[in-house]
Amino acid sequence: MRRWYLLLLLCCFGLLPTTGLVAQVQELEQLALDIEKLAQMKSILNEMYDGYKILTQGYDAVRNLAKGNFDLHSVFLNSLLTVNPSVKKYVRVADIISSQGALVSEYKTAFAAFNHAGVFSASELNYLSGVYTNLVDKSLDNLDELVMVLTDSELRMSDAERIAAIDGIYGDIQRKLSFLRQFNGRTGVLAEQRHHILQEINTLKSLYGQ
Asked: In this predicted model, what pLDDT tens digit does every residue of 44-53 receive, in sequence order?
């Protein structure tokens, strides 16, 4: 601008030709426009750069946050694979093992008694054996479930979920043990009835000399 004023003054005093002044003025105006456009372009570039920085920072923040959440989630999931020692000491664990042992012991004792009672046919003894075998197999499934619940890196479960699972296994094996005892009780009554009938038959045979 100063140069433009200087040229104007020189022209007024006749020190420069008018055509030269016009040319200079046009050049200065074009230069001013170019400078203004350059300034605008620089401003736009600065704004774009600022926007890029904000976008980049936002993306990094979201990425870091997501990664942090993922890491926390991974730690949480991995923690669920580790069994708390207090869960392993839960009283129902010993109860389940004890109940399974009782089931096996009681079935063996009962079957041996029924087998030697002499009041059941071979097919009936096979039926009894099938009932006992099925019960034992199912009780072993309960033990397998218990082992999975109590073994690290097998199941992702919280302590509360493991305790609930153990309670479920305990309830299931208790129902099996209860069924076994009822079954043995009914079979025992039947064996006693048959034994009593056989005694009466033998008594009648002895009375009539047969």
From this structure: 666 666 665 6
